[in-house]
Amino acid sequence: MTELFKKLITDFQERDLNFIERDYNIPINSKKIISLIGVRRSGKTYILYQIISKLRKKGLNRNIIYISFEDERLTGLSYRNLNEIIEAYFELFPEKRDEKIYIFFDEIQEVKHWEKFVRRIYDSLNANIFLTGSSSKLLSKEIATSLRGRTITYEIFPLSFKEYLKFRDIQINLYSSKSISFIKKNLENYLLQGGFPEIALEENEDVIVRTLRDYVDLIVYRDVIERYGIKNLSLLKLLIKYIFSNPATLISISKLYNDFKSMGYKLSKDTLFEYFEYLSDAYTLFTTSIFRSSVKEEQRNPKKVFIIDNGFNYIYNTSFSPDYSKLYENSVFLHLRRKYPEIYYFKEKKEVDFYIPAERLLINVSYDISERKTFQREINSLIEGMRYLNLKKAYLVTSDREKEIEIDGYKIYIKPLWKWLLSY
Q1: pTM of the prediction?
Q2: Please, what are the domains in the chain?
Q3: How many helices (H) and strands (E) does the chain have?
Q4: 365 DSSP β-pair partners
Q5: Residue 46 to residues 17, 36, 41: CA-CA distances in angstroms?
Q6: For 184, which of 3, 22, 84, 258 is 20 to 30 Å away at the CA?
Q7: Rounded Cα–Cα distance for residues 100 and 49 (Å)
Q8: Residues in domain AAA (predicted)?
């Protein structure tokens, strides 16, 4: 195994790295272990490449160890073999024992008990360590036990709209009519096909659909079925289809249980809860709770479910036309979730789509507010929320209107989605 590791280390050091830089500012010389977690194919590896490229520019290429544990040659690797990586490196470069080295372990969760090894080398080597993984709970559980206090964790998402435009070489100039027309055109693709990096660089419709389907299969089979030993595959597939077809939707486990049971599926509510947890762990879905002062009250109300990328709706949606209201809301959620781990929906008499306690921010999303009844409903719910929470401003994100209105001292900023995604 040592010889294989020598080959992997050397081949990577000799390899050219091609990537488009993402908007993540990951520290290179932190005293902590850096962990990047997120859904598969969201670009975690290429963010490692960004860091490695900076190190290469400093003349530190020989100080780098990069191992991808998704390499088929490492299938069945035991954590007992992991120390051979370090042995192999120092056999190649014995002079580096007195220098700082940089260790990159990609998809580390593929090796059971990896955290014991990582903790040991963190404590014993002069090394900066970078990890990636596609399981939020697996990594956080292991970090919380063996690596507590030693790590900084960054969540990696598919592309933001700003990054998407960068990948497609679209210039952002909010004062240029030409630039704005390209931005609006690309928003349509972003809304429908999502922001996975590989998808952003692809023009062929058939390839996009096939790639997204492959992503779902990879995530579901590698990160859910294999990891948790799922037996009821038909139920899991039905749940995935339901969730991906209905983003930004309030879901009650009890109602879902009754609906699936009436369709002839054998299941329990506990099974549904578990499957939701597994899909959440694999970063395929997120949930928001109603904002309440009591956890019990939060749990009594339905949760709103969002999906990691609009592209998954693209391959599951069977309607003749896209549901832009849901796609808009899911895109706004993902934009907020990149910044804030705690997001709620608010409801007294009327519902507000998002409340961010950290910023004391209320946001409603409505694709089409051309009808006065719709416009009034969105405004009234925001004003009710602002009164209840003692706020003075809120946002209404829509398709094409931009204005600022003030009612009884409450300000509401109406912004088109494309501009809000680029400016907030």
Answers
A1: 0.94
A2: 2-156 (3.40.50.300), 159-332 (no CATH), 339-424 (no CATH)
A3: 18, 14
A4: 397
A5: 9, 11, 10
A6: 22
A7: 18
A8: 31-165
